[in-house]
Amino acid sequence: MKEPKKLPIRRRRKRKKYRMWLHLLPQVVLITGCLAILMSIAYNVLGKENIPDKMVSDEIISGETLPENPVAETDDFQKDTGQPEAADTEIPWYLTLVNRENPLPENYMDHPIDLVDVPGGEKVDSRIYEPLMEMLNDAEELGSIVVSGYRTPEKQQSLYDNKIKEYMKQGYSENEAIELAQQWVAEPGTSEHQLGLAVDINGATYDIYLWLQENSYKYGFIFRYPGNKTHITNVAEEVWHYRYVGKEAAAEIREREICLEEYLENPEN
Questions:
Q1: 120 and 145 in contact (C-beta within 8 Å)?
Q2: Which residues are marked as active site?
Q3: Tens-digit pLDDT profile for residues 251-261
Q4: What is the CATH number of the domain that holds 245?
């Protein structure tokens, strides 16, 4: 009987190593799979903030750029939980403030005012026509009449220039005349008359002014330039000048004894 042929030593070693790797392969695959699962759990549970920089890019994850500021997520959460948003600060047309510090916007005349005629030959913004006529009719016995309503820029310029000339004729310097004139006639671009929401009202007797101070708020108008508010309005007392602001604002301004500037700075409602 022939003896089995013995393999060379090198070939026996190679077969031994091969059998050893075959034996270890399932364990290696199992360990690698466990590590992958642990890495996935760590990423999802702990968050990408706790994973080393070498394992997660600073800029891109799944093709999306990371937010630079995580506070944005907090802001979104606050909105979802009912946090109040910023209030709308747009001023209604009838509360537009025009004075020395707040001139008419440069584009104000891009949309021409819809003007209507009132008794006396003056014009006003059509939106205040009805309350104005109601007020004038109720004061009819006092001879109420509008003597100045809407003014064009040219009209306002003419009145302004004439007032300055009037003071200069009295001996005032040009600078003094301008300062005095501005207490009675607004510089063009800073007059409420150019809004079409202000009127100068006269009557048969002085009682018309007392009546207006007592009743104008019922129609949405205010005594615009009281003598005790000159330091705020920069306009001398004009008992004839009334401005439409709406019934709600007019009632509050009268009750609190304030002027329009004060109301817009701190409205209670």
A1: yes
A2: 238
A3: 999 999 999 99
A4: 3.30.1380.10
